[in-house]
From TrEMBL:
Every Metallo-beta-lactamase domain range: 61-268
Organism of provenance: Chelatococcus asaccharovorans
Protein's recorded name: Metallo-beta-lactamase superfamily protein
Top-level taxonomy: Bacteria, Pseudomonadati, Pseudomonadota, Alphaproteobacteria, Hyphomicrobiales
Record GO terms (molecular function): hydrolase activity; metal ion binding
Keyword field contains RNA-binding: no
Superkingdom of source: Bacteria
Family statement drawn from the similarity comment of this UniProt entry: Belongs to the metallo-beta-lactamase superfamily.
Gene3D superfamilies registered for this protein in UniProt: Ribonuclease Z/Hydroxyacylglutathione hydrolase-like
Length: 295
């Protein structure tokens, strides 16, 4: 008798965007409690998840996107290594399955410096960069905030460890090697435009990637649990730095995506993470992109 498989096939998905090969890569997932949301009762969260046939309590997918063009390879975010528990830290295996080595990565573009997005930069046991030939590209406000000792002192103990300390440990080797490049807005690489959308963190960014006549947005943490924050875009998260500003940024990004008919690549959209938005009367939903059988 043939034994049943214990694992899924590698969580890797390729799609072409003009001349850019975009690859969705899963770092895993986190199952979270109902307390992660602000200003929405638990029974409403349960009802929405049940209606959408989703796992309760909420499951948050964690995706990374590789962009290959012009002989270069860039990652948008880099996962979490072992820091976020045993269901995360799958990026390196999936990179290998996608034919990408750590040494071949030319840059890591961070949407922001939270551990599920940036804790894959450095092996803290050795202090060595995991991507030795890469520069880290990140909004200046992220560096200003997470290296602000006064802000760190005001934070809770959990925030000091998971956001400030971990963020510094991940970035320090690249800063020491002068491999951190910051920006405020505008084009950060050919065909890649940064769209600052602060609130979740001070320098949280989305990125519009364009090639030929095709465009998509890698929208970072615009939403964490799509079923909840698209149905109720005014719902903030407990780990937002500035919840009200984050809600405004989310509304602006959602409206821009619909107005410009952008393909979405979402870090917390269920793998493979690509979809199209629809909206009506201030409520939104995302329709998963049809599976492409060739890249």
């Amino acid at each position: 008798m043939t034994p049943h498989p214990f694992k899924q096939v590698p969580a890797v998905y390729h799609r072409q965007l003009g001349d850019v090969l975009v690859t969705g890569l899963s770092d895993g997932y986190m199952d979270m409690g109902y307390e992660i949301f602000r200003d929405i009762p638990e029974d409403e969260v349960r009802a929405i998840l049940a209606r959408e046939h989703r796992i309760a309590p909420p499951r948050i997918s964690i995706n990374v996107f590789a962009l290959r063009f012009g002989g270069k390879t860039y990652l948008v975010d880099c996962g979490s290594q072992h820091f976020m528990g045993p269901t995360c830290g799958r990026l390196m295996d999936n990179l290998a399955a996608a034919g990408i080595t750590a040494g071949s990565v030319d840059g890591v573009i961070l949407t922001h410096v939270h551990p599920d997005h940036s804790n894959g930069l450095t092996d803290v046991a050795t202090g060595q960069p995991i991507f030795p030939n890469a520069e880290v590209i990140v909004h200046q406000a992220e560096i200003d905030h997470w290296y602000d000792d006064a802000a760190m002192a005001r934070a809770t103990e959990r925030q000091r460890l998971r956001y400030f300390q971990w963020g510094r440990e991940q970035l320090d080797p690249y800063r020491a090697a002068d491999k951190v490049r910051t920006f405020r807005d505008g084009e950060i690489l050919p065909g890649i435009i940064a769209i600052p959308c602060p609130g979740h963190t001070p320098g949280h960014c989305s990125y519009v990637v364009s090639s030929g006549r095709q465009s998509m947005i890698v929208w970072g943490d615009t939403v964490h649990v799509p079923e909840i924050q698209l149905a109720r875009p005014e719902v903030a998260m407990q780990f937002d730095t500035d919840p009200e500003r984050g809600v405004r940024s989310r509304q602006r990004i959602l409206d821009m995506v619909i107005a410009d008919d952008l393909l979405v690549a979402g870090m917390h959209v269920h793998f493979p993470g690509f979809g199209h938005m629809r909206g009506e009367n201030g409520r939104y939903s995302i329709v998963a992109e049809q599976w492409a059988y060739t890249a």
